[in-house]
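Predict the assembly for these three chains.
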Amino acid sequence: MTALLLRDLKLSIRSGGGALIGVLFFMTVVAVIPFGVGPDLNLLSRIGPAIVWIGALLSALLGLDRMFQTDREDGSLDLLLMQEHPLVLTVLIKCLAHWLGNGLPLVIASPLLGLFMNMSEVAIGATMLTLLVGTPALTFIGAVGAAVAVALPRGGLLVSILVLPLAIPVLIFGVSASYAAVEDPAPFMPPFLILVAITMFFAVIGPIGAALALRNTAD
Amino acid sequence: MPESLAITKFSDLANPTRFLGLAARILPWMAGITAILFALGLYLTFSSEGDYQQGMTVRIMYVHVPAAWLSMMCYSVMAVSAIGTLVWRHPLADVSHKTAAPIGAAFTLIALATGSLWGKPMWGTWWVWDARLTSVFVLFLMYLGLIALNRAMDDPGKAARVSAVLILVGFVNIPIIKFSVDWWNTLHQPASVIRVDGPTIDKEFLWPLLIMAIAFTLLFFTLHIAAMRNEIWRRRVSAQRRMAARMAGQTPAKEA
Amino acid sequence: MTHTFYISASYIVAAIVILCLIGWVWLDGRARQRELAELEASGIRRRSARPAPTDGAAL
């Protein structure tokens, strides 16, 4: 299992630079926003957390289709299916590796983008914290989409379409927790704890669904 | 043993030929009853008085509410069929949830369009990011995604199983989405919009609404069964074409 | 604009969508039946050779 984790991690960092491209896409999306809404710093700092979150959501979707497809192409997916370990566990490990390779860099890059958006330190910290908690949920829910579309030759776009509606709760609670940290009357903890709960819920549902879908596409 | 009897009846239905026979027998009846109920419901709708507060626009409710109800019921039917596909490998369940998706999307579209048309005179805008409207919109997107997935796959059996997984994951998520949209909406409640809570329903409104709801539900089932029948036929046609092609390939080989 | 406009618009939209749906199901069924009948006519039958296809009778 550790070997699988390390292997996937190495692949995601080395081949094609999936992690790097995700972060670049994230930065580009966020950098494009001021050109759309204008360079008004007050406005930017107000919508900052939301923009950073949406950017992270979009770039998390970017690498999803490669999650199982590379394994399918080189045949290692069949090996994973034939293993004695429960497939759910294997998928969970793959999700973790994918998150470490693609999600964590986004979290690390987010404070820099927060500075671009003229966000206060508290807001930057809160956004980073919610991204840290929320992006695993995106990976888990995306694993289902990736597993569903693994057999399709051009599944990348379809994965995004299928996954985005399911990711709405993560976005809502991530953004509202980030705002709650800045705006006084709203409490920070309730939305944050719900975000944690959603992540843990998806940590169960995602691998189960993905394993089920993988078994059924492999038949 | 009534239980085993019920099970044999249910598994009898798994045979597509028996299903076709049953469908041929009940479809005219269902279509007829649906038409009668629609006639009655529409008559009651237009003979009823308008609501004091909302004026005559309350009549939109008689289309909007049943369509919204169906948009949710259809997804539940799909979820049950998805379980049928994954657990019992029921051959009709595949057909069922595949054909239900476009019908569900159509009714969701009706719910959205009439909701928007109701919102314009009531709220002053075509679209309000109201919790209910928004979650129905998300449901609509999910329907469209499922249709797209079904279209993208060539092998119908595999497409059915894979989309069944997605339907179930979506079904589990619907309460979460509904809850989070409610939360989001109370957080960002726009002050300018006058919220009109649904009128306390009088008996006068209840009857037409009930009849319209039953009529819509029957319409859904009629369409669903007819669409399932079409899908079975479609699969038969392609299977027979394949067989014909194989036979055509064999005969010259023998001659040679 | 009057309320009548909105009411009639919503009923018309609903009617159009439902009629499209019914039309799609109906025409699809007709097309499939025709295909089955053509296959039948060209002598291709299902392996579980039904003596007379009852479901094709409505054509």
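Chain B is about 85% helix and 0% strand. Chain B has a mean pLDDT of 79.
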